[in-house]
Each structure stands twice: as C-alpha cells, then as structure tokens.
Amino acid sequence: MAYTEFTGNEAHEVICIRVRKNEKGDTVASLHRSGPVKEAGEYLFLPEGEFSVPEAIIRAEPLGIKHNAPIVIKVEEGAEWEGRWGELQ
C-alpha cells in the first residue's frame, strides 16, 4: 500500500502515524488526528500508546475507512521508513 507523507497543512481531517525512535532506540509509532475536525461527523477516537509500525497501520486502516480520513505518515528525525511497510510518497 502507498502512504502520503504528512505535510502539516492538510485541508481535511487525517489520521497521522508518527514514526520515531523511542528511548531504547526502537522504531515505534503512535496515532494522531490532524487537520480540521468535521463538524457534524462522528468524533474520531484513536488508540493511545506506542505500537510497532505494522501494528499502527493495522489499527489505523479500518478507522480511516470508517471515518473517511486518509492515513498520512510523519517520520521524525532519527527514524526511518522501511519499504516493507508500504510505499511512502
């Protein structure tokens, strides 16, 4: 699957998977909402915590479909996106 890189100026609500290195040096991911919230829509609740990147993707995809919210990726400094997780555009 192909994912779009987070720009910070999304015109609509998106689910952002934030990829970073934790204190142990492991690559982890967390889920965040970004962009304007839909006024009359159902509130988008995201699971909290640190996940492996594949687990974060698995958790985000059905929520993105349910809420019509695209999934974007933000790779923090020091972390790297691995091609096995999908294409990052």
How many distinct helices?
A: 1
Q: Looking at the structure, what is the overall shape?
A: globular
Q: Count every beta strand, where a strand is a DSSP E run of 2 or more residues.
A: 5
User: Averaging pLDDT over every residue, what do you get?
Assistant: 89
Low-confidence stretches: none
C-alpha end-to-end distance: 11 Å
Radius of gyration equals: 13 Å
| H/E topology pattern | EEEHEE
Largest sheet: 5 strands, mixed
Assembly state of the chains shown:
single chain
* SS strand fraction: 25-35%
The helix/strand class is alpha/beta
Helical amount among residues, as a percent range? 10-25%
Order of strands in the sheet with most strands: 3-2-4-1-5
Strand-helix topology:
Layout: E1 2-5, E2 14-21, E3 27-34, H1 53-67, E4 71-75, E5 87-88
Parallel strand pairs: 1-4, 1-5, 2-4
Antiparallel strand pairs: 2-3
Characterize the structure shown.
By secondary structure, the protein is of the alpha/beta class. It is built from one helix and five strands; from the N terminus they run E-E-E-H-E-E. It has one helix spanning 53-67; strands at residues 2-5, 14-21, 27-34, 71-75, 87-88. A five-stranded mixed sheet has the order 3-2-4-1-5, with helices on one face. The longest helix is centred in the C-terminal third of the chain and has 15 residues, at 53-67. The radius of gyration is 13 Å and the shape is globular. The termini are close together.
